[in-house]
TrEMBL record:
It comes from Collybia nuda. The lineage of its organism: Eukaryota, Fungi, Dikarya, Basidiomycota, Agaricomycotina. InterPro entries: NuoE-like (IPR002023), NuoE_dom (IPR042128), NuoE_N (IPR041921), Thioredoxin-like_sf (IPR036249). Transmembrane segments: none annotated. Binds 1 [2Fe-2S] cluster. This is Thioredoxin-like [2Fe-2S] ferredoxin-domain-containing protein. Residues 216-231 have a biased composition (Polar residues). It comes from the Eukaryota.
Amino acid sequence: MLARLPRRLPIQAFQARRPLSTTLQRKSDALFVHRDTPYNNPKIAFEFDAETMKRANEIISHYPPQYKKAAVIPLLDLGQRQNKGWTSISVMNYVAKLLEMPPMRVYEVATFYTMFNREPIGTNFVQVCTTTPCMLRGSTDILNTTLQHLGGIKPGQTTKDGKFTVVEVECQGACSNAPMIVVGDDYYEDLTPETTRKILDAFAKGEKPKPGPQSGRFTSENSAGLTTLTTKPYGPGEFCLPEFS
């Protein structure tokens, strides 16, 4: 007779409880096909301001004239930043005209990369990493804390005051400092529910908390503190023979 298998422990024994959420079913073409709306249609004018155009021309200069279309991703990023964090159809058309590309080629890029937001977002764009390393370090608590502290919204939603949009993302490359979130361009690492609420409150007041580890760590050193590079690094040529100095 086969030995009786041990009873499986509930998942709650290993991690914080995570509520199941669903979104409305959407047709597949909604992900890739543009539909005109009052706030997103080709009739809404867009063009780079003087400062952004200066940066765009500098980026374009890195490529041979016949390959300037390779600048499409950084130029879309510039357009998104100027357009309050999202890439409208007018931004795409403007970049296509500037780079002398068929608009469809720009649409293909903007719909492929998730870094381009095709709908308006809040003033503060919060990306909560929930991939495996962060999950093992408590990202479920961080995600739930963020959503609850911002009025009980769900991933992908924006708060009623327009200050925050929260999305759930995969690895952001800060696994040694998990769990973490990204707000705008800044990383906030080594989080706890308490420090997460503190960060969100600061942004809600229009302040910018100091990015990086929130646990007192300087970078990614272990819990025992620095074990290497504990002395001042020597300068170039310090240990060279005199004839090479």
